[in-house]
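step 3/5: co-fold with cytidine-5'-triphosphate
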Amino acid sequence: MALIALGVTGGIGAYKAVEVCRGLQKRGHDVVAVMTRAATRFVGPVTFEAITRRPVITSQWKPGANADIEHIAIADEIGLLLVAPCTANVIGKFANGIADDFLTSLYLATKAPTLIAPAMNTNMLSHEAVQRNLQALAARGVRFVDPGEGYLACGWIGKGRLAEPDEIVAAADRMLARRDSLLRGRRVVVTAGPTYEDIDPVRYVGNRSSGRMGFALAAAAEARGAKVTLVAGPTDVEPPATDALIRVRSAAEMHAAVMQVSEQADLVIMAAAVADYAPAQTAQEKIAKSDGPMTLTLQRTPDILADLGRAAARRPSAPILVGFAAETIDLLANAREKRVRKNVDLIVANDVSVPGAGFDATTNAVTIIGADGEQTLSLQSKARIAEAILDRVEQVIRVRHATTAAR
Ligand code: CTP
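step 4/5: write tokens
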């Protein structure tokens, strides 16, 4: 819950800012509306005043506005400056430090993060001057909600339309979560994807993991301000941008990489589908077929999560460990047993026989099992499942803090 300054500038999408304001309030945030002069030509300040139940700031010259140097007072109080819609003019002023009204002064005066939802004509958006200003702001840490494509008020079809209010509200919420998250500044290791165990130069033993669950977790942790090292097996899906990416192929390679990076980590999430067995020997040359059946001898791979659990038992400041349990029968019983046997804080159990859940899907349905409770999540996007897992991890961090403090 935070106080958000909602900057509204003079674009045709200004009416959509009313819906953005409502959406932010529904998520429990308090909103103060700051309108530029041009914005008041599109929507009346009274509308925002009635919704926010606060005076709307339209000018820094209004009597009373300077009694407590309002733009400085608000600048200190807010958790986020959100500008939706944001015109090319205001983007230009922000980028160049021009402060000729309340909103542009507020941008300079606040240390709160800034989120901008640009809206303008397609040609204006692609103009070099605007693009340069956007890049300058991005380099300064300003975040953007990308404009959508579609019919523009000027009759054009193209990119430039204000993003949908729901999208803007969700982006604002994510930025605030990042500010408040216990994962902020923590070192997180996430594994993703399958491992390939080579039989010969052209064949391997693998599995159908796409890497999406691990990638969603890495992206969500990164968005909460964590420093994420992603250790990924071979995947077709592009990994998200993280602090570091280590590509591996086999379980043995993943084991070596994870054991090394985990030494400095605060949290390790093993979402990879690591092969349990690998060919005892990898043939140097391609194995030619013969008439009879073929026998391939497989041997156990190192169990990375179990090794992390063993190391954690010896080290009081060990990272929090999260494992996955992919099952087709006796889901909860097997997963509970795995959590204890591997000595991990949380096990995410997923029944991979449910349509749409688990391997090679964009959705998942899971039960998060911890020492002090279980939480079942119905079929939903892997991004939302990732958020719920990280919320649960933050709960574990809170309990650990409380236990350490009590000692
Ligand atoms: N895992 C691991 N190293 C392995 C195998 C699995 O670190 N060699 C991790 C997975 O990343 C996952 C968890 O262990 O987080 C559970 O994997 P799963 O294959 O479901 O369980 P197993 O313990 O291998 O048990 P079983 O195959 O007997 O069900």
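step 5/5: annotate
The chain has 13 helices and 19 strands.
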